[in-house]
# Entry
Amino acid sequence: MALSATATAQTTISAAAPAAVDRPVAERSIGDWLQRMHDASRQRAYVGTFVVAGGGRLSSARIWHVCDGTQQMERVESLTGAPRSTFRRNDQVLTFLPENRVVLAEKRESLGLFPQLLQANNAAIAQYYRVHEFGRDRVAGFEADVLELQPVDSLRFGYRVWIEKDTGLMVKLQTLNARGQVLEQAAFSDLQFDVPVSMDKLAQMMSHTEGYKLEKPQMRKTTAEAEGWFLKQVVPGFQPMSCYQRSVKGSAQSQREHTLQWIFSDGLASVSLFIEPFVARRHGQPASQAMGATHTLTRRLGDWWLTAVGEVPTETLAAFAQGLERQK
# Structure
């Protein structure tokens, strides 16, 4: 849940954790629990209000999610900040910005809760996280199993997750720092399952772009190696997921005026490295910032400028920055 990075990581949210129970986690492995959550987020039909708090900010959105076995559609209506409506049909995403009369068209390969989970090795996830059960709690009127996913090192945050006991849908999520403080919290404030949402109606709303300017960001799938970049030292647990060349708005169509996005994940947390040519008038001094659980690090790498972003500690972003090198 990316928010603009302007605050420090010391922001906390007051939230009491349920008391831990001293018994096995229903004989499920961490991979079993995560797979159940991921599948439910893609396959269950529901309508609800989702609230995200972190970094001193609060945002909320109304979500309509419907599926018919092979197709899934979703509408997300922002309830705070500038008006914004996002529609998704499988991997096709349209975001309506009514104040600007603009529609942004994108394609997203990874969908659902913990989107890189299916591309990651469950054994690797289990190597870097431990799962503990915290009994039962109620969220939005539903009984939920409460789990804590604790990292085994300082390169990733922990998670406390509330899972609706019958469906497996994640109904609340807290991101925790090394001291157990809540950096960011996301939860349904109200939720209804199996509501008769019409997929055809959502499709009609998604296609109604009359009066809007359609903008489609230029993205070309590539590899870091093909673009001349590599990591001389792997950051433990993080695997490369995908890599894209993104065109810079308003730039000429030369390769040096594009931004490379290299995406990594450990199956739960993700990191994006954005690499672009250094421009003195646009790029300032090296810096690091945080907003809730989202951290950002910027620095110059010779003729290039790196922006590293992820829901990970700053030291993890620094490890990526230190290991990134240009092929000679």
The domain at 30-213 is CATH 2.50.20.10 (outer membrane lipoprotein receptor (LolB), chain A). The radius of gyration is 20 Å. The first helix runs from residue 30 to 43. The chain has two domains: 30-213, 217-326.
